[in-house]
Write a structure and sequence with these properties.
Strand content: 15-25%
Shape: elongated
Number of strands: 21
Radius of gyration: 30 Å
CATH class of the largest domain: Alpha Beta
Number of helices: 14
Oligomer: single chain
CATH topology of the largest domain: Rossmann fold
């Protein structure tokens, strides 16, 4: 019963020295897995170095390589347990890379799963919270979520192993300990078997959540998200956030509601700021999570030379004699796009081209004196384009704004401009 099923390849086992992780290490060793052990000494109480030596002695007897580290930096601010967990997982990430392990095995048991679910219920949670901790998240696996602590202790007694008992496990200052020692025993006395029913419900919720996650996988577009049930749509947004480097779990219900509110009809260029310095935005039918950073107003290099007329899609062709410079947007800017009819606000050109709002202030513009001459990648002023027989200036900037909504921007050639003008069609650049 204590033989876990794990992916093939090397496994890094997180060993605290307590009963659960000790049993996991021994069981994996007995089944012949390729193992490396990892122990992190939080240095929070006297005697923690003795526990580290006990873990080292066990690994030596088993012939298992051990990676250890003792905390030498200050704990992050906030909850003691959360701060210790942050440092421990950072160590495990480093140890996995150092050992070349495929996964990190954590020894959370069925009891831990139930405790987590009840804590989530007490705080208020949705489906993801009711399933408790997942059996796998990224490189981390929990093979003992169906094993009870009573089974762990029986396994160790059968092998004559006496593990370390962490005093924090009976410290009622912590909510989880109060739940373990007071609330759950009271519930069990009043409703015998309720702990097992909590576990079964969490397993069922995990299965349903996995089904929702599978339904949410694959390319996510605005139109596809509208057709999904709300639970599936929310999971799709969580996946989008996680794939962009967001922490799991990292999105609150308020974040998800704000993201879902943008999926309905409306203009592009809108977004929602998310934890971890990320931002969700919609550009046309395309949805993405990107780094949330202010526009960097650095003037690109302006390149101007004579031209007989070429097909460079990254340049504009303006008439000779203009005093050109690079700047950025300010209130009241307009131009008359070549191939179009009448004058248009710069703001409207950005909206039509689906330039995300947070990128507009950093979009370089080319001016002729105080007049807006060229919006690179989007529009060129018809009043400043050369007439037949006039000298042509080939104008380019580096770096060029090269992407809009994940699509490469290509300006049309002078000949294509003329064809569009004759056909009476508006030109703001093609998105290909």
């Amino acid at each position: 019963m204590l033989i876990p099923s794990l992916p093939t390849g090397r496994v890094l086992v997180a060993v605290s020295g307590g009963p659960d992780s000790t049993a996991l290490l021994i069981a994996l060793h007995e089944t012949g897995h390729d193992l490396v052990a990892a122990h992190y000494d939080h240095a929070l109480r006297e005697g923690s170095d003795a526990v580290a030596r006990e873990v080292a002695g066990l690994c030596e007897r088993l012939g298992v390589q051990l990676i250890t580290e003792r905390r030498s930096e200050a704990l992050p601010k906030g909850s003691l347990q959360a701060a210790a967990r942050t440092l421990r997982y950072a160590f495990l990430d480093r140890a996995r890379v150092e050992s070349g392990a495929e996964v990190v095995a954590l020894a959370h048991t069925a009891d831990d799963l139930v405790e987590g679910v009840v804590l989530h219920l007490l705080r208020g949670c949705g489906l993801a919270g009711f399933r408790g901790m997942p059996a796998q998240r990224g490189r981390y696996v929990r093979p003992y979520l169906n094993v009870w602590k009573s089974e762990v202790r029986e396994f160790l007694r059968g092998r004559g192993v006496v593990p370390y008992e962490d005093p924090a496990n009976v410290d009622t200052r912590f909510a989880r300990v109060r739940l373990r020692m007071q609330i759950l025993p009271e519930l069990e006395r009043d409703r015998p078997g309720i702990t097992g029913r909590f576990h079964a419900a969490a397993v069922a919720a995990a299965g349903f959540h996995d089904a929702v996650k599978r339904a949410a996988s694959g390319p996510i577009t605005r139109s596809r998200l509208r057709t999904m049930p709300q639970a599936t749509a929310a999971e799709a947004l969580r996946l989008l956030y996680a794939n962009a480097g967001g922490a799991e779990p990292g999105l609150s219900r308020a974040h998800l509601d704000a993201m879902l509110s943008l999926v309905g009809p409306g203009r592009g260029g809108r977004g929602v700021d998310l934890p971890g310095g990320l931002r969700f935005r919609i550009v046309g039918d395309h949805m993405e999570v990107v780094a949330s950073r202010p526009a960097v107003l650095r003037s690109p290099r302006l390149e101007v030379r004579s031209c007989a007329g070429c097909d460079d899609g990254q340049a504009a062709h303006l008439r000779a004699g203009l005093q050109l410079r690079v700047g950025f947007r300010r209130p009241g800017l307009r131009l008359r796009p070549a191939g179009g009819r009448g004058s248009r606000k710069l703001q409207d050109i950005f909206v039509d081209a689906r330039v995300p709002r947070e990128e507009r202030d950093g979009w370089p513009l080319v001016f002729a004196g105080e007049k807006l001459a060229w919006v690179p990648g989007l529009a060129v002023d018809a009043d400043l384009t050369p007439l037949p027989g006039q000298e042509v200036l080939h104008v380019a900037i580096a770096p060029m704004p090269a992407r809009i909504g994940g699509k490469v921007v290509r300006l049309e050639t002078p000949k294509a401009l003329e064809r569009r003008a004759r056909a009476g069609r508006t030109l703001y650049g093609d998105l290909t």
